């Protein structure tokens, strides 16, 4: 894949899966902009992306819950790098919690980051997307369509993200902008996976639920993003692409219940 001369913006691109995506675009010669809340993580990522081969890299620290800060950051990226060829929106927060046990503010926090954050990022970037030819990739999760106990907040937020993908593929598709979601399965070594499967037993249960028999890697997800952003995918828009080793086909599996059982037993203890 050759992304030389292309501008790629990755929001939430300073760790885990999203950083893997940014590194893959860097290795393909793109100009990159990354953002997250921590300036330290942004600086560390800028150095890594330069080393990975990016033509140019900038970054900014902001919280996706702050619409004005997001808009200002994106304006700054546009002034430095020009129209956006690719926008990856992947900032998210998660913790396991039963609905009855979590506060309204806890639920709202995840909705504000995952769903409203996506709204802020997409609306902030809209004026700067190349048209025709711009590409949006929203990073979703299996929770969008699979219910897991202890994940009502994430399920609600990510389902909303995917419905935005589908709707904007029509609204913005007429301007030549493609909009897709990528759904990572359980990806090894990531913060999200650590939070949902904190013990070796839980990790093994998860692996057994995956027909391909292994956890995913950040590179698996990055490969899908490179493809979707390339001309090879020029007629693909409005799709929700699972990169999950066929996890979806088995549904929530036993893991969907296990987290609830674990949280209930912690409550009793
Ligand atoms: C219950 C919790 C909680 C927990 C926080 N809260 N953690 N409630 N159980 N474990 C509640 C708090 O008590 C508070 O409510 C409210 O949530 C906000 O908490 P804060 O700590 O003030 O929020 P904030 O500092 O903004 O941090 C947001 C965060 C944090 C989501 C809580 O964990 C974070 O920054 N996460 C980013 C990294 C991350 O989560 N990465 C994984 C992404 S994976 P009260 O009522 O007390 O005020 C993912 C999907 C993965 O998204 C899918 C895997 C398959
Ligand atoms: P991660 O390492 O915690 O990545 C989250 C990124 O978002 C970080 O760069 C974080 O940096 C940033 N971020 C978090 N809250 C933010 C906020 N309020 N404003 C701005 N930036 C914020 O998690 P991950 O596990 O790799 O997950 C990445 C994406 O993949 C998420 O969208 C997640 O839902 C999705 N996903 C993950 C898995 C998995 O197995 N891990 C599975 C399915 C889907 P700061 O802390 O500096 O803000």
Q: In words, what does this structure look like?
A:
The longest helix has 22 residues. This protein has a single domain, classed as Rossmann fold (3-Layer(aba) Sandwich). Helix 1 packs parallel to helix 2, helix 1 packs across helix 8 and helix 4 packs parallel to helix 5. It has a 7-stranded parallel beta sheet with strand order 3-2-1-4-5-6-7, sandwiched between helices. It is 46% helix and 14% strand. It is α/β, with parallel strands linked by helices. The protein binds hexanoyl-coenzyme A and NADP nicotinamide-adenine-dinucleotide phosphate (NAP). Hexanoyl-coenzyme A binds next to helix 4 and helix 6.
CATH level 4 superfamily: NAD(P)-binding Rossmann-like Domain
The low-pLDDT segments are: none
Measured on Cα atoms, how large is the radius of gyration? 18 Å
Order of helices and strands: EHEHEHEHEHEHHHEH
Q: Give the averaged pLDDT, no decimals.
A: 97
Distance between the termini: 52 Å
Total domains:
1
Record field, number of beta strands:
7
Number of helices: 9
The biggest sheet amounts to: 7 strands, parallel
- What is the percentage of strand-forming residues? 5-15%
At the first level of CATH, what is the class?
A: Alpha Beta
Overall structural class, as computed from helix and strand content, comes to alpha/beta
Pfam family, one: adh_short_C2
Enzyme class: oxidoreductase
EC number: 1.3.1.34
Family: Belongs to the short-chain dehydrogenases/reductases (SDR) family.
Secondary structure layout plus pairing:
Elements: E1 7-11, H1 16-27, E2 31-36, H2 39-52, E3 56-61, H3 67-81, E4 86-89, H4 104-125, E5 135-139, H5 152-171, E6 178-184, H6 191-196, H7 200-208, H8 218-229, E7 240-243, H9 255-268
Parallel strand pairs: 1-2, 1-4, 2-3, 4-5, 5-6, 6-7
This protein binds hexanoyl-coenzyme A and NADP nicotinamide-adenine-dinucleotide phosphate.
